[in-house]
Amino acid sequence: TFNAALRQSGVEKDFYHDGKNLLASFQMSIFSDIKAYTANPGEILKMRSRTSIQKLKAYIVQAVLFFCSLTSFLALWIRYAVTQKPVVAVYSIDVMSDTVHKRDGRVSYMYTYMKEQNEPQLELMHTVPTLKSIKNFFNRSDWVIYIESVHFMADHVSFFNHTKTDKSGSLNFEDCSDSDKEFLKELYRKYNRRKDQFVISQGIYSRIFSAFKIKRFWSIDDTRYVPEILPQLLVRSIPTYMFQHGHYTKYHVGFLAGIF
Prior knowledge:
alpha/beta, five-stranded parallel β-sheet, two-stranded antiparallel ribbon, 51% helix, 12% strand
């Protein structure tokens, strides 16, 4: 219904960049949002009606995480980039179920191997910005660059350099309840913002990867955020390995085309 409405209204073309439809990169995230809304419609629609205090608190947490990521980048650059020491780029999720490595237990074997082989690593990590994220950062002994910090920077660049056009009013969602229509319009607004975030983030990832000599990329198969990293891996022909941690879905198919 969502994709059909975008096509019928002619809005889908706005999601194209360099000949590629960015909605393909967002499909898993869109699916997750629809799944969450289906389970609890009221809570999802409340998300956009946060108070000013709630928004300020969220911004402060994101700002702190940004400076954590910036410090991590500088520390890793001094440690590895200056000496041009090859590193393994790693993507993971901010959970600490593995108490030994203080990482995601689903890929603990990855960290065990790197430690045994004494592999230097450049780690990118997805988190949900909260006080717990900050606590996790300081509880780890390694430097981490958060995906959300890249988004934080991209959002600021986008705010000053781009005028967004909200075309949600032109979308026609037939046979939908008022609640569903409101949610689908909010979904459009969210990914219209994320489209600009995605494009600007490419420049940031390019600078991060250009600063290091990356010999390979290892990642859990997170189809929500890894797609925004993949273009920079492809253009540099960096060998890329995705570790499947759960059941196989249609959202994995795109990972099969490329350098994997």
